[in-house]
Amino acid sequence: MEKNAPRRPRRYLRSRITRKLILDTALDVFLNEGYAKTTIAKISQQANVGYGTVYSHFKGKDDILNKVVDNVLDEFYNLLEVPFSPKTLEEARSAYFELVLTSFRLSEQHRPIMRVYQEALGQSPSIAAHWHSIIDQFIKSSAKSFAYSQEKKLADEFDIQTVAKAYILLVDRFIWEVVNENESDLEHIASIIINMLFNGYFNGGGRVKK
Question: Model pTM?
Fold first, then answer.
């Protein structure tokens, strides 16, 4: 007879449930109140948990918002796990197009909480630092993809880190354009960015390698 899988202590399970309750409630409060007007008191009151209980799980409002955004936008992080191993230039172009388009679609899908996050970016250094850490992850991931492309002779030699940074910062800028509803044709934007990346601004002529 097989042994049963070890059970989690009830206290651990209660803690997990409480933590999820706080995050779910915080999401509603942030969406209804915005960043500036959201307080720990409002979150604890609507979650029907003690003020101190919230602080036993989170460092404060900014920590909660970062966790809320991490949970809501978990698909963003999944993009980093997508294997990049194209064998042809067209496969590489298609892979990058799907990555960029997916980023824009996720931004559109989660527009309400992204707007709250945008508000917070302008007011909180810790929120800004968290978003910059996300951007840095994407820059590192892109740099690896560019290095692979050079190794497989799918791309000319260039300064990988600089191009990766320029590429991700451009995508980041358009993410907020989508969030603010300044851009609606997501496929068109993605196509332009990918064409710039693969063709070069002047049709690939006179590429600068340094």
Answer: 0.85
